[in-house]
Amino acid sequence: MRIIGGRFRGHRLAPPPRRGVRPTADPLREALFNILGDRVRARPFVDLCAGTGAVGLEALSRGAEPVLLVERARAALRTIEANLRRLGLDPRSPAVRVVRADAAIWLAGPEPARYRGAVVFLDPPYGDPSAPRLAAAVFRSGLLGSDGLLVVEHRAGEVPPAPEPLWSRTYGDAALTAYGPQPSGD
Q: Over the stretch 40-66, which tens digit does the pLDDT of each residue have?
């Protein structure tokens, strides 16, 4: 794994901490950021279920700021910290922040308001039955504001976790589906 583009381009990242962690593959991250283009520059980026942190760190490399990495597993958090060190970043800097929390609990708290209008990347384990609830929690949290974007990575062929996507793309066994802010009352 490596950073694909931006100021950290070419930096290698630490491997996943254990079996069962499925980092977003380099080609899929490249496709995601080709689609997003400058939309990430100078705006908040939230990586929920961050795993190795590769997607959030790619966003930081491409100009997103601040970047928040939310992960609950201790082993994954150690990998994120190792990746921050590899890039020469301090996990307490204003540019990137790491939070140990369950994504659903974090979304229900007061902190999402600090990242309103963010591009949010949600990558729960494939087939996780909580994925639709997590997507709904993103919409309820107000995190997207009026101009944010939610991108969900899921297994190709699975029903996306929310209605009416803006776009959906399939890349081998994986798919990316994007949603804009939902109207009030949905």
A: 999 999 999 999 999 999 999 999 999
What does the angle CA 103 – CA 176 – CA 128 come to, to the nearest 5 degrees?
45
Q: What are the tens digits of pLDDT across the range 5-34?
A: 999 999 999 887 766 567 788 889 999 999
Q: Kindly state the tokens that stand for 86.
A: 């590899």
In whole angstroms, give the CA distance from residue 53 to residue 94. Answer: 16
| pTM, rounded to two decimals | 0.92
Residues 6+ apart with CB under 8 A from 151: 32, 36, 119, 120, 121, 122, 176, 177, 178, 179
The residue among 177, 173, 136, 142 whose CA lies nearest residue 157 is 173
pLDDT for position 185? 44
- Dihedral, CA of residue 17, residue 18, residue 23 and residue 26, to nearest 10: 80
Query: Is residue 44 within 8 Å of residue 68, measured between CB atoms?
Result: yes
Structure tokens at 18: 């254990």
* CA distance linking residue 105 with residue 6, whole number of Å: 32
**168 residue type, one letter:** S
